[in-house]
Amino acid sequence: MSRPGSIGGQSGPEREFLTADVPGAPERALAELIAGNRRFVTDALWHPNQNASHRSAVATEQHPFAVIVGCSDSRLAAEIIFDRGLGDLFVVRTAGHTVGPEVLGSVEYAVTVLRTPLVVVLGHDSCGAVQAARASVATGTPPSGHLRAVVDAVVPSLRRAREAGVAELDGIVDIHIAQTVEAMLKSSETLAAEVAAGGCAVVGMSYRLAAGEVRAVTARPVELAGALVPTA
After folding, report:
1. Is the whole-model pTM more than 0.90?
2. 183-196 burial, b for 16+ CB within 10 Å, e for fewer?
3. How many domains does the chain contain in total?
4. Which of 24, 46, 84, 113 has its CA at a distance of 20 to 30 angstroms from the CA of residue 35?
5. What kind and span of H or E run contains 226?
6. Which domain of life is it from (predicted)?
7. What is the pLDDT of residues 144-185, one digit of tens each?
8. 47 among the known binding-site residues?
9. What are the C-alpha distances in Å from 117 to residues 84, 157, 187, 198, 203?
10. Is residue 73 a known part of a binding site?
11. 214-220 and 201-207 as β-strands: parallel, antiparallel, unpaired?
12. Domain-embedded: residue 15
């Protein structure tokens, strides 16, 4: 793993960047995230890439090694829970990590223009968006305003959970994370092609609000699942 600074422990203009063109980049990017989360959980933080010199270094260009498509929940700040800094993560957040054209366009920009080798769908336990969708379906009362778009995006995951006999909230959250991964790959030919070419991977993770840990939900390609934190 890298030390405080850039990937590989390098700093300055010769530092290494993990891009889709580097062999094994998706696996290495995932390992960086897992190591950073472990530091966060154990309170052994490095706070890498957060000083003035690095701020200046990334002012004219960026080379994020992972895209985080996460829930907007205020307790799910990616740079904090993965112990990373400026320029490391390309973060897109919506309530319930719901995915629309703008989100897909942002992801496609990262994986094709910035050559980011890893996309993570990051959900969490006790997700309010999932709870709101479940309450809406149970009462037959859709929410008002644009909140309805969030609920409507979660409803397919509720149907899938019902078909699988899953009723517990955090089990539904896991299904929703997996559903988001599949929906992104199905909706974005660009992302699917990058994954098929081997330069990019998409993984689903769930974050525990109290413990601070991320755990495995799904991965594409499936072989990458072995590198994920075991489910508990």
Report:
1. yes
2. bbbeebeebbebbe
3. 1
4. 113
5. none
6. Bacteria
7. 999 999 999 999 999 999 999 999 999 999 999 999 999 999
8. no
9. 16, 27, 19, 9, 11
10. yes
11. antiparallel
12. yes
